[in-house]
Amino acid sequence: xxxxxxxxxxAPPHAxxxxxxxxxxxxxxxxxxxxxxxxxxxxxxxxxxxxxxxxRACDPGGSPGGGGVMSxxxxxxxEKVGVNVSTVAGELSESFRANIxxxxxDPRFWASGISLVAHMANPRVPAVHFNTRMLLTTRGWFxxxxxxxxxxLDAPEAVADAADFHAALRGAxxxxxxxxxxxxxAWCDRYFYLPHRGEPRGAGGIFFxxxxxxxxxxxxxxxxxxxxxxxxxxxxxxxxxxREPWTEAERTHQLLRRGRYVEFNLLxxxxxxxxxxxxxxxxxxxxxxxxxxxx
Amino acid sequence: xxxxxxxxxxAPPHAxxxxxxxxxxxxxxxxxxxxxxxxxxxxxxxxxxxxxxxxRACDPGGSPGGGGVMSxxxxxxxEKVGVNVSTVAGELSESFRANIxxxxxDPRFWASGISLVAHMANPRVPAVHFNTRMLLTTRGWFxxxxxxxxxxLDAPEAVADAADFHAALRGAxxxxxxxxxxxxxAWCDRYFYLPHRGEPRGAGGIFFxxxxxxxxxxxxxxxxxxxxxxxxxxxxxxxxxxREPWTEAERTHQLLRRGRYVEFNLLxxxxxxxxxxxxxxxxxxxxxxxxxxxx
Lengths: 295, 295
Hints:
Helix content of chain A: 40-55%
Number of helices of chain A: 8
Oligomer: homodimer
Number of domains of chain A: 1
Number of strands of chain A: 10
Largest sheet of chain A: 7 strands, antiparallel
Distance between the termini of chain A: 41 Å
Order of helices and strands of chain A: HEEEHEEEHHEEEHHHHE
CATH architecture of chain A: 3-Layer(aba) Sandwich
Radius of gyration of chain A: 19 Å
Structural class of chain A: alpha+beta
Strand order of the largest sheet of chain A: 1-2-3-4-5-6-9
CATH class of chain A: Alpha Beta
């Protein structure tokens, strides 16, 4: 395995941030996992995250290196939650270079990120996705986002949850640039949409990519704030909903809504398709799949 | 709705077969549904197929016509089985013309077919897929196939089921051309494969497309024989397995294997992706999705 941190690259200002960025994603993962385990414990459950380290599989036409740790918990509140932190480097294969900023000149890349998907036992608790990442080619940028998938979009509780989730992300955005939230919210609405059904995946959130304001330190601070906003908002939503009673009809509806989640991820999600087509770690990529689904 | 049968086309010998081909697919559907309902009745269940007619949705850039009938049964033996017969006509949009034989010269097409997917309650009973179709552009051809998805590929019972299924299809092939079975079996093995997992979807069967021997009547007779072979083989497999006792572990394994089925259909299946991208009937296209799945 190649030492991911040693990959030489034409160095945008982001290059110096690599160790700090990676350390931040890992520390955030630890805090999120601890919080989720605490919620399980409050419910009298003893579920814990199980972590598995993996090395990046060989990408035909590239020289990959690095790997990651996937942490998975199957609990009573969190029916299935996966948190994946990975730091990888290598060369992008020919077919991907045209689509990745700065890769046409030099195929080498470095990427580090955290991604999380939680599917909840109680259909009153919304599912959630969150991720942030830094990428380096001859350019450097941040990307990420988070979106909430309540099972009943129009129920007052779901509307309240979505409002709180959006408010937290908006707060993180507004501290950095008043233009961020409207832009990143609209981006999220466009991205998490199922054209074959004419349906949004859920209640949205924010989505951003290719973020390079010219001040890498500032962008990194924004990405940290997005992580803090997620950590402040989502566990609070889980805590206030996870003891609500629910009906079999609600559970059935939840399992059908999870089908939409699967359809989105396998038909459209760029990260999923990119990972599967480039020989990524299948278990890590598909860790986001719901534990139980119906069609 | 445009009258699908009236679409004018440069007429390959297949054109005259349109009413007979459509009638065959509908009659085969009726016989298959009756047989599956009989199996339910033998198990003391009263499940019946529920049929829904649909018109083809508008394809941007085309002038679609026709429609189909989807027949769905949720029973005790057949946890979920869908049989879809459709006969559609219209114009292929620009982006598809290059990939469809004979469409570059004239974008009009006509297609009729039957497709079936059965997901079984008992994990000892293999799932199955079967379809046959005739297509017309300025050329005409047949396509189709069937494949079996036992849940435990290596169990002696699964090996025996797969052998019987293959033997029936081989019989149908051999009656027409000794080269068909080896060629169509290999095609099936290549097609129903999950590269991201390095796994076959199941125990295979046959798969063929663009079949035009120069004798449309002969090709239609082959397609009918494939249908007869399916009808002879699969219900017999269901009958001998559906009363076998099974364990919770086998059921869990079945639900995980169904996840592979979903992955294949949404990531790779050409019919599914073509349908979803051309504004096809979502419920009919995704009728093949398993009723319950785990990851």
